[in-house]
Amino acid sequence: MTNKPENTVPNASALRRQRGVGLIEILVAVVIFSLGMLSLAAMQLASKRATYEATQRSIATGLARDILERMRGNPDQLDAYVSTNLADPNAPLAAPDPNCVNTDCSPAQLATFDLVDWESLVMGATEKLDAENAGGLVSARACITNTDGTVTIAIAWLGVSSADNPTESACGNDVTGLYDDPEETAGNNLKRRLLVMSTYIGAS
Known about the structure:
204 residues
């Protein structure tokens, strides 16, 4: 007597269960892939923000060093460089006369020219896009003080995200509402970035 061979073909219900398991695996893989792509996008966004912030701070550092070197070259006119609330687009400094690029100027005239020229750099007026300032810092304000040869340059600008509010400088760069985060309490200045640079410049 021979044994009847067993039926090795799976029944329909078993096949359906196997197909269901495969679909779940695909869905899990898609979810994991999607989460990975979202994390990658978030990392790229954070990287771009960090790069932008670093670029703005580098620009501010270069601007501060620029005006300090101009003052070092004209040490007897330090008080002529003292100014508050520079780079206000509603109250820019008047154009210098004469223009010291092509004209020999006195020390006092050179100080006036330096200050106006430097303010235009802070405001980004030397670079234009559709007639709008495209260089410099975003919503920048700057000021210069001199105390017996100790010169302080303070530059404030608008960052991309909220951060710890920097210590207020002696120059008074706290412009009401200019650096507020609309998602936070008004008047917090949480988007303000501030660079302060000081040095001593002796008279000639």
